[in-house]
From TrEMBL:
InterPro entries: DUF222, HNH_nuc. Residues 347-399 form the HNH nuclease domain. It comes from Candidatus Avipropionibacterium avicola. This is DUF222 domain-containing protein. Pfam families: DUF222.
Length: 440
């Protein structure tokens, strides 16, 4: 193209891009003359070339964000910020919206107050993104890592530029997560003798991030200060110990036990009612579920952010945590809304602790402070929040007894556990030794 023919109005350029993309999709997926017709070397070259093109599309994101903020597009849509507007209009997560804004601010060319062109704040990384040599995820990891290094008061301009250059070079070699960890190694290289203030650096680089995956699970990543790390270990390590008993072997890995220990701590925090309120309501997990799915124990329920959870898992969670279920009919009308007062109150909990003195599953030694209050007859099945329908159970046994075929029964006001037929053909109820000792 020559002259003005190469400078298309953005809408026309987008239409041309869409048409070219349609052609590319058709060509690549052609079962006869498409990618399947290429040998491995040509397929590899195409894969890399297409990834470079995908990475370069971030430049359009930068232009969109810059134009939106310059023209105050968020105000036009009656939204308080560009980030909120992007989330609403494009159905982005907050993490993705802020990543796009961060990239636009750091990687776009600028104009001075006098109208003179200025290079991007991170010119080396900006050039790599423009060439398609770094993905949006890699670029964001690098930007956040550089922002942490910037907080070091003694960092020189040369060291700052060197850090950007090293991280950008490694974008061709390392995945995004490793780039985040490389920041610490760069810091050690810049300051081998520990001249920089360790405390300031640790404070500057502290972080905790999470991302909701497609299946609704939460992927965590971060770096805790030594003090916070010691607190976390002090809380989780006692709860993450093996919970073997003569009746049920604990087959969880160490990582799984740590996860379950964190779940126990979160349950206890929600039960305590000391978390900050949201809109005047104490921190609570709200979920909606179809009435038929609830009755039949099938299908899924949805949390307020759209994350789904299988109905059986919800019922297990709702037995103890501060969960408010809203039951809907097929048309979406509210049939009933549960209330968190199904949870045992303080006096009932004290009575449970006095009676059970810990997890009541035979052989378990978990202390009552780390147990959950279990409805013997499930609350969803009409079970009452009464002392003769409640017992203390640790996280592990609460989440695994039904799956392994056990059942709990209240006999004379005391919890007994019925083993599966595979373990005891007669299914003779078993009682924790604590209750037997109480009678002697």
């Amino acid at each position: 193209m020559e002259g003005n023919a190469a400078i298309l109005e953005p809408g026309r350029a987008l239409a041309a891009f869409d048409a070219a993309l349609d052609q590319l999709i058709h060509s690549a997926s052609d079962p006869v003359g498409g990618l399947l017709a290429l040998d491995h070397a040509d397929q590899t070259r195409f894969l890399r070339a297409f990834e470079r093109s995908r990475n370069r599309m971030a430049l359009v994101d930068h232009a969109v964000v810059t134009a939106s903020e310059t023209s105050n597009l968020a105000d036009h849509h009656h939204m308080r910020s560009t980030a909120v507007m992007l989330q609403s209009l494009l159905n982005l997560s907050g993490h993705e919206a802020h990543a796009r804004i961060r990239a636009a601010e750091q990687l776009s060319a600028r104009v001075s107050t006098t109208g003179e062109p200025l290079e991007a704040r991170r010119p080396t990384l900006a050039a790599a993104v423009a060439a398609g040599q770094a993905s949006t995820t890699q670029a964001d990891q690098i930007l956040r890592g550089l922002a942490r290094l910037d907080k070091l008061a003694d960092l020189t301009d040369d060291q700052r530029s060197s850090a950007e250059r090293v991280l950008t070079t490694h974008a061709r070699l390392l995945p995004a997560r490793e780039l985040g960890r490389l920041v610490d190694r760069i810091r050690d290289h810049i300051d081998p003798d520990g001249r920089l203030d360790d405390h300031d650096y640790l404070e500057a680089t502290r972080r905790l991030e999470w991302q909701v995956t497609r299946d609704g699970s939460l992927r965590l990543e971060g770096k805790l200060t030594p003090a916070t790390g010691q607190k976390l270990r002090a809380v989780l390590e006692p709860l993450a110990r093996l919970n073997d008993s003569p009746q049920m072997s604990d087959t969880r890995s160490l990582e799984q036990r740590r996860h379950d220990a964190l779940d126990t701590v979160l349950d206890r925090t929600l039960r305590a009612g000391t978390t900050p309120s949201v809109g005047g309501m104490p921190a609570t997990v709200a979920v909606t579920i179809d009435h038929d799915d609830l009755v039949e124990r099938t299908g899924v329920a949805r949390f307020t952010d759209g994350t789904v959870i299988p109905t059986p898992a919800l019922l297990q969670m709702a037995d103890e945590a501060a969960v408010i279920p809203t039951v809907l009919n097929r048309a979406g009308a509210v049939l009933s809304q549960g209330r968190s007062n199904r949870l045992a109150n303080r006096d009932q909990t004290l009575a449970l602790v006095t009676r059970d003195r810990g997890c009541t599953f035979p052989g378990c030694t978990t202390a009552p402070e780390w147990c959950q209050r279990h409805h013997v007859v499930a609350w969803f099945d009409g079970g009452h929040t009464d002392l003769d329908n409640l017992t203390l159970v640790c996280h592990y046994h609460h989440h695994n007894f039904a799956r392994l075929g056990w059942a709990c029964r209240m006999i004379d006001g005391i919890p007994w556990w019925v083993p599966p037929k595979g373990k005891d053909p007669h299914q003779t109820p078993l009682q924790h030794l604590r209750f037997q000792r109480m009678r002697t």
